[in-house]
Specification:
single chain; alpha/beta; Quinone Oxidoreductase, Chain A, domain 1; Rossmann fold; 2 domains; 8-stranded mixed beta sheet; 6-stranded parallel beta sheet; 11 helices; binds nicotinamide-adenine-dinucleotide; binds zinc ion
Length: 402
């Protein structure tokens, strides 16, 4: 058998890394199977994800090397894929990822919530505070991710393994990375943590109005992953009376499995006034106390007010990015109704911990959360996965280890 230079280098690295593992400076996975190269899916041009190979990064005393198990494709990833609005190409995408710790720098003993970590534990990353690496979740009750970076949307550098569409990712303490030990959640739940945190945050914002209660009548408009998870969060916290609004019968039907009591297909109604009447009759002669706007459609924003009673509330969370202007009538829609409105954008670090509990609660009451992941592609077929996500024929599309 011929051994080439690359293989020799791999063997030497392996021996050295095992040595450093036993000397106590860096703990390493026992099976000694860390390859010398990392495969990273890079967006190299618009509409093109390529799996590239780079040398396996060194693991510093504050770092964690993670073997990736899976990562969901987010709407933000799809925007990057189609248009690169953040000007990041070439970029290692993927922020909804999770995997197993295979090497652990000697200074890393606890996650961002203070929970102990060891090689073999399963983690997710959250935010990166480049300006303040010492920050912990307990400092961050109010600050949301708007002030931070995340893995999967970082400029490329000499590490390259900066996104979760890869077989390994290097989580770097010096960058101010936050991460959580989520070994007690199954893989699908872990893949869903990030989008679920968006809804935990939105429901927290909604609760801040004082209007959303266990016995509220709630409308959730939009049954993409965001609206569907919104229903699941509401159901898990005990809200019993939820109507979903969408034009997609399959998604509306699925919303019932996640906790919707009834559905309204806007295609069955002639205009918003008639549709509002439809909601009213399905709520037994009442309109909603509270509504969540979970579409990126300006028409959706204009319509949402009509579903809410006088003195009610609404949470607008459908515009992660600028989706254009929407027309409303301030007199009828807000003033005379004395509506309380909150906006919601991403999440805080603290919402992450709540999200872990939500996912356990959702499982405990039998909500089929994993059915939100409609398609799984191996890393080698990441480009197909992105094309599937762009086609919008599934719900959450995930890339998993080969
Ligand atoms: N606030 C945040 O931090 C945050 C985070 C992530 C995503 N988002 C936003 O949430 C929105 C939804 O995300 P998603 O992944 O579920 O998207 P999606 O496109 O999969 O789902 C949107 C759903 O809305 C429905 N819809 C469109 N127009 C409608 C209308 N006028 N009335 C009723 N239903 C309508 C569609 O049929 C679709 O099922 C996106 O626009 C995204 O920007 C916000
Ligand atoms: Zn996301």
């Amino acid at each position: 058998m011929e051994i080439n230079n690359e293989q020799i280098e791999a063997i030497v690295k392996q021996v050295l890394s095992n040595l450093s593992g036993t000397s106590g400076s860096t703990a390493t996975a026992g099976n000694g199977s860390i390859p010398s190269k990392v495969r990273v899916a890079m967006l190299t041009e618009l509409g093109k994800m390529e799996v590239k190979e780079f040398p396996m990064p060194e693991v510093g005393d504050d770092d964690i090397l993670v073997r990736v198990e899976g990562c969901g494709i987010c709407g933000t990833d799809s925007h990057e894929y189609k248009r690169d609005p953040f000007g990041l190409i070439p970029v290692a995408l993927g922020h909804e990822g999770t995997g197993e710790i295979v090497r652990l720098g000697k200074n890393v003993t606890k996650d961002s919530a203070g929970k102990p970590v060891k090689v073999g534990d399963k983690i997710v990353t959250c935010m990166i505070f480049k300006d303040n690496p010492d920050i912990t979740m307990f400092d961050l009750n109010k600050k949301n991710v708007g002030g931070a970076d995340v893995y999967g949307l970082l400029p490329d550098d000499n590490v390259h393994a900066n996104g979760w569409f890869a077989d390994y990712i290097l989580v770097r303490g010096a960058l101010g990375s936050t991460f959580f030990n989520v070994s007690d959640l199954d893989l699908d739940s872990r893949i869903l943590i990030e989008p679920c945190a968006v809804l935990v945050h939105a429901v927290e914002r909604a609760k801040s109005t004082g209007i959303l209660r266990f016995n509220s009548r709630v409308v959730v408009q939009g049954c993409g992953p965001i609206g569907l998870i919104c229903v699941a969060v509401l159901k898990t916290m005990g809200v019993q009376n939820i109507i979903t609004v969408d034009g997609n019968p399959g998604r509306l039907e699925f919303s019932k499995k996640l906790g919707a009591t009834d559905t309204v297909n806007f295609k069955d109604y002639n205009g918003i006034e008639e549709m509002a009447k439809g909601v009213e009759s399905k709520f037994g002669g009442h309109i909603a106390d509270f509504a969540f706007q979970c579409t990126g459609s300006p028409a959706g924003h204009s319509n949402i007010y009509k579903f809410v009673r006088n003195g009610g509330g609404l949470c607008e969370l459908g515009f992660f990015i600028n989706g254009g202007d929407a027309t409303i009538n301030p007199h009828f829609d807000i003033c005379s109704k004395e509506l309380t409105i909150v906006g919601s954008w991403v999440y805080t670090l603290r919402d992450y911990a709540t999200t872990f509990d939500f996912l356990k609660g959702a499982k405990a009451i039998g909500l089929p959360m994993s059915e939100l992941i409609t398609d799984k592609y191996p890393l080698s077929r990441v480009d197909e996965a992105f094309k599937k996500a762009a086609a919008q024929t599934g719900l959450k599309i995930a890339v998993v280890a080969d």
